[in-house]
Amino acid sequence: MKTALKWIGIVLAVLIAVLIVVVIAVFAISNSRINATYDIQVEPVEIPTDEEAIARGEHVATIRGCIDCHKGDFSGGVFIDDPGIGLLTASNLTAGQGGVGSSYTDEDWVRAIRHGVRPDGKALLFMPSYEYYYLSDEDLGALIAYIKSVRPVDNQIPEDSVGPLGRVLHLAGEFPLLPAETIDHNGPRPTAPEPGVTVEYGAYLAVSCSGCHGPGFSGGPIPGVPPDWPPAKNLTPGGDLANWTEEDFINTLRTGTTPEGYKLNAEYMPWPLAKEMTDEELQALWLFLQSLPAKETGNR
């Protein structure tokens, strides 16, 4: 009996030692990636000042989801506060107290939006720059012009922190903590298509949908959201839109109600932002989704 207890004690001690090593390794590896610095050679982008361009920037900020995290006044706030995942925030982008607007240069804005990297070279946490990397210079310049035009709002944002579960999920590839890691910062700029009712322009717009619906737009579980969130819909011809018409698609995003009578929950599917797209933008988006190969849901 004593021998058995001795061996049980040894096994438990080994398991505890292994667990400690694993915990230390997780924190060490995740910290090295979180604190990594990027040397970004920022490409110049013209920042317009005319009212038409600023209005275009407001439109881009809306349909691309910037106001979903940073709020309509760009004052930012906390969007994840979980002991396991961590405390993750959206920056106050205004020139008010606690905001970055008073200190960011035009290069800083380009680096942050297009590359997901702060002025000090470290990656912004959870900033989906893999979506904004594809913005044309015209749309990016207009977006920055609009952000710089918003009124200052005082809002001191708490410092981000990453919890143990957030670190584990990030290392496992299940939590998009550092989108900057996924971008080829020194690669050639993607060519942005001319605006119009085309598949190509629809693909350009649809990049903003890929964060939830996946790179292949087949939906499924959404990375980095609470576990009680429903899976994203399959937007390919093999999924939920298989029997829809273009009119059904546009009406759904305009009203938040599907042809089947299902009301979209704006917390999960931000249709109030999508409804601000022009008819031409929605038609282009529909053309692109219809051009995709049919996939089973979750086959990203």
Quickly give the structural class.
Answer: mainly alpha
How are the strands ordered across the major sheet?
1-2-3
User: Any idea what the shape is?
Assistant: globular
- Low-confidence segments: none
Q: Which fold name corresponds to the CATH topology of the largest domain?
A: Cytochrome Bc1 Complex, Chain D, domain 2
N-to-C SSE string, H for helix and E for strand = HHHEEHHHEHHHHHH
| Biggest β-sheet strands, sense, barrel | 3 strands, antiparallel
Number of helices: 12
> What percentage of the residues does DSSP assign to strands (E)?
under 5%
Secondary structure: helix percent: 40-55%
- Can you give the mean pLDDT? 91
Query: What gap, in angstroms, lies between the N and C termini?
Result: 54 Å
Give the class-level CATH name of the largest domain.
Mainly Alpha
Number of domains: 2
Named CATH architecture of the largest domain: Orthogonal Bundle
Q: Give the total of beta strands.
A: 3
Radius of gyration: 22 Å
